[in-house]
Amino acid sequence: MNTAVAVFPGSFDPLTAGHVDIVERALRIFERVIVAVLNNPEKTTLFTVDERLDLIEQQFRDYKGRVTAQSFSGLLVEFAKRVQAGVILRGLRAISDYDYEAQMALVNKNLCEDIETLFLTAREQNSYVSSSVVKQVAKLKGDVSSMVTPVVEAALKRKFKY
Ligand code: ADP
Q1: Range(s) of the domain holding residue 46
Q2: What CATH number is attached to the domain comprising 106?
Q3: Is residue 37 classed as helix, strand or coil in its secondary structure?
Q4: Which of 20, 21, 22, 43 should be mutated for ligand 1, with most atoms under 8 A from CB?
Q5: Which residue of 56, 102, 118, 161 is most buried, as measured by CB atoms within 10 A?
C-alpha cells in the first residue's frame, strides 16, 4: 500500500470550499489525492455521479494529475486497495463529527490493517459549510459564493435556474 496516495471519500453533492481546502492541504502531505465519490443508488442526490466527478475534475485541473476523481460503490477499503492508496483522508468540522468518524475509522481498520485513516480539521471559516447547507441556500437562490468555488457556484445556478 502506498502511503503517498490518499483517498478522500464522500458524497461531494456538491464539492464545497471545505472539501477543496482539505484536498489542497492534503497535497502538502501526499503526492496524490484521489477524490472518491460514493455511488449510492439508494440516496437521492442533486448532482449525478458523473456531474460530481466532472466538477471535481474541473476544480483541480491545475494540479496536473495530483488530484483525480473516481466513483466507487461497496467497501471503501476495497476501493482503496484497488487504487493502492495507503491512507483514507477525512475532514472533521466539529466534535459532533467525531463519533461517527472514529467509528468508521475503527471499522475500516478492522477490515484492513494496512490502511490508515487521517483526519484534517476544517478551517474555521469552513466549519459550518456542508453540501446540504449549500443545497438549501442555492435552492432558495441565495448567495453561496463563500461556501463553494466559482465552478460549483455556476453549476448550482444552472441547476436552480438563477
Ligand atoms: P459524507 O457523506 O461521507 O460525510 P461529504 O461529501 O459530506 O460525505 O464529506 C466528505 C468528507 O469531507 C468528510 O470527511 C467530511 O467530514 C468532510 N467535510 C465536509 N465538509 C467539510 C468542511 N466544511 N470542511 C472540512 N471537511 C469537510
Answers
A1: 2-159
A2: 3.40.50.620
A3: strand
A4: 22
A5: 56
| 93 is known as an active-site residue | yes
Taking the complete model, does pTM exceed 0.90, yes or no?
yes
Query: How close are the terminal C-alpha atoms of the chain, in Å?
Result: 46
CA dist., res. 152 & res. 161, Å (int):
14
131 has catalytic annotation: yes
Q: Can you read off the three cell numbers belonging to residue 72?
A: 466507487
141 is catalytic: no
Distance 140 CA to ligand 1 centre (A): 22
pLDDT digits (tens, 9 = 90+) for 86-123: 999 999 998 889 999 999 999 999 999 999 999 999 99
Q: List the beta strands (DSSP E) in 23-160.
A: 32-38, 67-72, 85-92, 116-121
Beta-strand runs (E) in the chain: 2-10, 32-38, 67-72, 85-92, 116-121
Number of structural domains in the chain? 1
- Kindly report the backbone phi and psi dihedral angles of residue 87, in degrees, each rounded to the nearest multiple of 5, phi listed first: -135, 140
List, in sequence order, every residue forming a beta bridge with 32; answer none if it has no partner.
5
- pLDDT value of position 21: 98
